[in-house]
Amino acid sequence: MFHAIKLYQTGGPETMRFEEVTLAELGPGEVRVRHTAIGVNYIDVYLRNGLYPQPLPGTLGKEAAGIVEAVGSGVTDVKVGDRVAYCNGPLGAYSEARVIPAEFLVRLPDGIDDADAAAAMLKGLTVQYLFRQTYRLREGETFLFHAAAGGVGLIACQWARALGARMIGTVGSDEKAALAKEHGCEHVINYRKENFVERVKELTDGKGVDVVYDSVGRDTFPSSLDCLKPRGLWVSYGNSSGAVPPFEIGVLSQKGSLFATRPTLFSYADTRPALLTMSEELFALMQSGKIRTTPRHRFALKDAADAHRLLESRGTSGATVLIP
């Protein structure tokens, strides 16, 4: 028997239950993975509290690393004993082991630790699609990134430095400002002390930035739009403070013929070739040392509710993992 975090109703962290579960039999194309580390992400909060609907009862979690223990018929990409990671596919990562379609697994290269991989897959591939696909950042370009000291943010700081792009980041404390700076963010704004729109304009000689990457949502809207150059792009890829309220699309023309998009990782990594290409770019940067993803917060799987409480309080910096 294995244990997993089960969810029978949506709500607060107290709705998460650590229970014994029985794994399904392997079907064609499926793999049984024993988890060694599990990533905690804000999408897990959205699924737990009902913002993103899911069938109940269910199990949370999109991201984990582990060891392949068994493979079903037709599986050729991985074998028993392989170290693997994933961040896509059916929910169920908050578990000691699980059965998952092999198409969602990527093999981990030597030199990348399991916990680092569990901290990097969803967050790192998010940065990959944001920086390399949604808006392809070029050397010398200036952009604004909210929550620069979060799990996605610290990877973004390092990736921007590797690209030679000029990152302006927002954070909520001086400690987080120092952390973002240490990871490569060129200019850091503590939004509790400074007006980030005014500071962005100062840093760009009144021109604004080419693109704003915004995972905060309600609290940074519509101010994020005021940081953009004419014809700039607002990328709203999350809503940790709450959903962006409905708005009249004409505001985009009023503020300079702006563009807006609401992308998700799962639309970009929607085929196996895309997943492998994106993962290879992330792993190459990790192996070179240009991106480091060592988790800053670790909880036992049974204490997943505590991990969610810390995440929702904005008390985390960097990545958080659960250890089975």
- The total beta strand count reads 16
Largest sheet: 7 strands, mixed
Radius of gyration: 20 Å
How many helices? 9
> What structural class should be given to the helix and strand makeup?
alpha/beta
Given as residue ranges, the uncertain stretches (5+ residues, pLDDT < 50) are none
Helix content: 25-40%
Strand composition percent: 25-35%
The arrangement of helices and strands along the chain is EEEHEEEEEHEHEHEHEEHEHHEHE
| Whole-number mean pLDDT | 95
In one word, what is the shape? globular
**End-to-end CA span:** 13 Å
Summarize the structure.
With 324 residues, the chain is an alpha/beta fold. It has helices at 42-49, 114-134, 151-163, 174-182, 196-203, 250-254, 265-268, 272-288, 304-312, and strands at 2-7, 16-21, 30-40, 58-59, 64-71, 83-86, 97-101, 106-107, 142-145, 166-171, 187-190, 209-214, 228-236, 259-261, 297-300, 320-323.
